[in-house]
Amino acid sequence: MPTVDEVPFQHPSEREFALLLDFYGIRWEYEPRTFPLEYNPDGSVRSAFSPDFYLPDLDLYVELTAQSSRLNHLKNRKIRRLKELYPDINIKLLNRRDLQQLALKYAFPSPVTSTKTKKDS
Amino acid sequence: MVRPLPGSISETYARDISRVLIESEAIQQRIREMGAQIAYDYADLRPLFVGVLKGVLFFMADLLRAVPIPLEVDFMAISSYSPETRKHGVVRITKDLETPLQGRHVIFVEDMIDTGLTLNYLLRQLQTRNPASLHVAVLFDKPSRRLVDIKPRYLGFRLPDLFVVGYGLDYREQYRNLPFVGVLKPEVL
Asked: What does pTM read for this prediction?
């Protein structure tokens, strides 16, 4: 598995999260899988979702979002759809508030202070 | 419901706490109940209580006194995650247990479980030492950010998604000595 320094994270909070996982010995993969959510009439994928992390030891996908809750509608909708289509998938969404709380607890930079916008994967 | 803060705490702390979430008496009552259950479950097993410094001190002290059976206690310490410690890569045990766990009935005592990352790491470490049994007693459970699915055998309270301090819970090493659990004002953070 690649190290933190080898992964082109989309947002600083993702790197911080990976470092936290490393610290506690939890293996992780970054965006290892894309789940098709909607298809065009011709069969091509119209909408898909790539969770930020997969933690193989826990069989858990984790999605981080530094957006405010008002801007999370699209992501929440995709996660709901993901759970409908792939009911065996375990996924956890850590929202901006969660990341702020983790930042407070573990003393890493708050996601809110980051100026880089996290993509809507 | 907003409860008045006890008058015995310092003005500094009183200014920083917006409200009391769990009063001292409620904590003590719940610990007595947990202790009675543990005493029943481990009556003839001479359990070994294990805690990780520092936040568990208060809970451990009160819990042990609520378990009226022969028992032993030991402590360990680990490096907590910070911008400094993460340079070393992984969590390190900075003070190990003095008691061998082989064949012992171990109760791992924690003040709070949040993401479960720390507890998961510690349980994996302790499991390698071949205890006869290993169960978890947690006073406060904050399940909203749980990443590792850990189900404590003994649980005190579930906490809402608020930044709370007191009764061992700290913010930057402060507030641990509050006898109750309080919500920290946002402007303090």
From this structure: 0.85
